Structure formats: structure tokens, C-alpha cells
């Protein structure tokens, strides 16, 4: 099948990432890039990539069927809607926008012009997340009670637009959108309540970290945490279920599972600690538990473009649906409200 021609708007960090992957794609062909900064256009040309002289020139290129937008969050809508109105399918970098009203206008433009619109939730292909989702869906350790998902670093927010409120900066929008989307993909999209605390350690204008507690309608709970001033990182994932526990240190490791085989409550012997005896915290042994690891699932980040282009061509449902895009954004906006008021927010 003939490859779909794709152009990238914005040739910064993620725009460059998209261009690089499109050059290797089996379903897409990079037609070129457009960037308002001349030095970035020159950089693309030095690498043999065509740089459109203007956004209008890109929109007028009839061979381009799909445009990927990778620019600061606050200017997504204008660029996305112009592309949709020109009859182009669009992928917009996350977060898709910073208000529900803006998102609804973009969705309306896509529907009016009979084209597809998606946001780049590429971390649905992360192997650590896929391992946790696989374990949960297998039912091997019973109903999941709660999941903790964390990303910790120690270098603060990058010194670019991500540190500025006007551009939709901060960690809730930057990393939070990914981690929220992942736990919703694991537990489902029926969110009942959120409670959030934000950090402003290295940046007073936007959050440079946060802790978000999500309660689902079914009673399950998720904790999503991002820190940029953590010199010792906590585990990437921690899961508790009715029949066991899962620990995944980071994406390079396999998930460790400890499954409870027998309860044996009456056979627990007290253990001696510094302050006295305890039965409550007596350790388990191999008689009552099984310990094993789960291999990292197979994953190919190119599947995002494969699936979206297939949806464009066949009319099937796209991976990242409009309802999912709305719910992700609703959770983030409710998290900001919770952090500002110091109170939980019902969805």
C-alpha cells in the first residue's frame, strides 16, 4: 500500500522525533517540516528534509494527507484548526490543548470537514506500562486495588516554554498527561474524584512536580506522581491486588510479582524488631507465596502511526478517541482546581 505523506509543524525536540521516526516508517513518508524559526528550517534542510517556506504553503500541498503538530501547548488550536479546515488529518502533540472549550472546537472542526484528529499518546507503547496492564488484565493476582505510577528526576523543568504558564507549561501537562492516560487505560475511564498537591520547588510559575490521587467509580485508586527534584527515585510502578503485589523499578527492568498462595493466618509466628514483637509485619515465605517476574512485553512505537493511518484509510475507530481525549483533559483541569483549593474535586 502506498505510504501516506505526512508533514510536521514544529521542528524542535518532539517535532524532530516525529520527523526521524517518519523517515523510518513503513506506512508514512515525511513530506517536509515547517517551523517559524529560520534556524530550525535550515537545520532540517541540512539533514536533507524539505522545509516549507510558510504554513500556507504546507496547507496548499495537496499530496500531504496528515499533519503532525509539535509546538507549544497554548498555540495548538489555531494551527490544528487551520489544518483541519484545509482538509488535512491531524495528530497534535500532548496535551492536546489547555481547555475543554478549545478541544471541543478542534473536534468540531474535524467532524465538520470529515477528517481525523488525534493526540500523540505515544506512551501507550511504553513497555513498563504494558507490563502492568497485562498483569492486571490477566487476573493472575485478582482484582487490582490500587496502582502507584511515578516518574522522578532531579533537574527541574527544562529552561524552555515548559516552565512558563502562558504556554501551558508544568509537569501536569508535560508528564502528567501520559501517566494519567496510562492509569485510565488500565482501570477504565469512569473517574469519580481527584485530589492533587503541586510542587513549586524550582519554578514558582508552574508546577515542577505533583501528587495526584484518582478514585474510580468502581472503588479502585491510582496515585500518579511526578517529581523533578528527587535525587533518589521511587519505583516506576507499584500495584496491590487481592492476591498479590507487583513492583516494577523502572522501564529497563522486568516486573516482579509476589502472589499469595495460602493465607495461613493462624500459623504466623511473631518476629522480633528493635521495639518489640510483631505478628502483623511478620514476613512471608515460599510456602505461602510465589515470586516470579513478567517479561517485558513486545512493543513498537511505530504502531501509533500505523493504527492512526489505518483508521484514516478504513474508517475504523482510532486508538485515542475523542472521549478519551476529553477525559484526560478533564482530570488534569480538575487536578489544577484541587491543588488551588486544597480540596478533592468530583468529576
Explain what the structure shows:
This protein is of the alpha/beta class. The protein folds into two domains: 4-120, NAD(P)-binding Rossmann-like Domain (Rossmann fold), CATH 3.40.50; 124-300 and 330-346, Dihydrodipicolinate Reductase, domain 2 (2-Layer Sandwich), CATH 3.30.360. The chain has helices at 13-22, 38-46, 55-59, 76-85, 100-113, 127-138, 171-187, 303-314, 322-341, and strands spanning 4-9, 28-34, 66-69, 89-92, 117-119, 144-152, 191-199, 209-216, 221-227, 237-241, 244-248, 255-260, 271-273, 276-278, 289-294, 345-346. Strands 15-12-11-10-6-9-8-7-16 form a nine-stranded mixed sheet. Strands 2-1-3-4-5 form a five-stranded parallel sheet, with helices on both faces. Strands 13-14 form a two-stranded antiparallel ribbon. Helix 4 (76-85) runs parallel beside helix 5 and helix 7 (171-187) crosses helix 9.
Salient structural properties:
16 strands, Rossmann fold, single chain, 347 residues, 2 domains, alpha/beta, 5-stranded parallel β-sheet
Quickly describe the structure.
This protein has 347 residues and is α/β, with parallel strands linked by helices. Helices cover 31% and strands 25% of the residues.
Which structural category do the helix and sheet elements fall into? Answer: alpha/beta
Overall, the morphology is globular
Radius of gyration: 23 Å
What is the succession of H and E elements? EHEHHEHEHEHEHEEEEEEEEEHHE
Layout: helices, strands, pairs:
Blueprint: E1 4-9, H1 13-22, E2 28-34, H2 38-46, H3 55-59, E3 66-69, H4 76-85, E4 89-92, H5 100-113, E5 117-119, H6 127-138, E6 144-152, H7 171-187, E7 191-199, E8 209-216, E9 221-227, E10 237-241, E11 244-248, E12 255-260, E13 271-273, E14 276-278, E15 289-294, H8 303-314, H9 322-341, E16 345-346
Helix pairs in contact: 4-5, 5-9, 7-9
Amino acid at each position: 500500500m502506498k505510504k501516506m505523506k505526512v508533514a510536521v509543524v514544529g521542528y524542535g525536540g518532539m517535532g524532530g522525533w516525529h520527523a526521524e521516526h517518519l523517515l523510518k516508517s513503513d506506512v508514512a513518508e515525511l513530506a517536509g517540516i515547517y517551523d517559524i524559526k529560520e534556524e530550525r528550517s535550515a537545520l532540517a534542510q541540512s539533514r536533507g528534509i524539505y522545509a516549507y517556506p510558510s504554513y500556507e504553503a504546507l496547507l496548499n500541498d495537496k499530496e500531504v494527507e496528515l499533519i503532525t503538530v509539535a509546538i507549544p501547548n497554548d498555540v495548538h488550536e489555531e494551527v490544528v484548526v487551520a489544518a483541519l479546515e484545509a482538509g488535512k488529518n491531524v495528530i497534535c502533540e500532548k496535551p492536546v490543548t489547555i481547555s475543554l472549550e478549545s478541544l471541543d472546537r478542534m473536534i468540531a472542526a474535524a467532524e465538520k470537514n470529515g477528517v481525523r484528529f488525534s493526540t500523540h499518546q505515544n506512551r501507550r507503547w511504553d513497555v513498563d506500562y504494558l507490563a502492568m496492564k497485562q498483569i492486571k488484565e490477566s487476573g493472575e493476582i485478582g482484582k487490582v486495588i490500587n496502582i502507584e505510577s511515578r516518574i522522578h528526576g532531579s533537574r527541574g523543568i527544562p529552561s524552555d516554554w515548559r516552565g512558563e504558564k502562558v504556554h501551558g507549561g508544568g509537569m501536569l501537562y508535560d508528564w502528567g498527561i501520559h501517566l494519567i492516560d496510562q492509569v485510565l487505560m488500565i482501570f477504565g475511564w469512569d473517574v469519580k474524584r481527584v485530589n492533587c498537591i503541586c510542587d513549586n520547588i524550582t519554578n514558582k510559575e508552574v508546577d515542577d512536580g505533583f501528587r495526584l490521587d484518582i478514585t474510580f467509580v468502581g472503588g479502585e485508586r491510582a496515585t500518579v506522581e511526578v517529581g523533578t527534584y528527587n535525587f533518589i527515585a521511587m519505583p516506576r510502578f507499584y500495584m496491590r491486588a487481592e492476591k498479590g503485589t507487583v513492583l516494577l523499578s523502572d522501564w529497563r527492568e522486568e516486573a516482579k510479582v509476589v502472589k499469595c498462595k495460602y493465607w495461613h493466618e493462624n500459623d504466623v509466628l511473631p518476629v522480633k524488631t528493635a521495639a518489640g514483637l510483631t505478628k502483623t509485619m511478620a514476613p512471608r515465605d515460599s510456602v505461602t507465596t510465589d515470586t516470579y517476574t513478567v517479561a517485558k512485553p513486545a512493543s513498537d512505537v511505530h504502531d501509533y502511526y500505523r493504527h492512526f493511518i489505518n483508521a484514516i484509510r478504513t474508517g475504523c475507530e482510532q486508538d485515542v478517541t475523542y472521549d478519551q481525549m476529553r477525559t484526560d483533559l478533564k482530570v488534569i483541569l480538575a487536578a489544577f482546581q484541587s491543588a488551588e483549593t486544597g480540596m478533592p474535586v468530583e468529576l
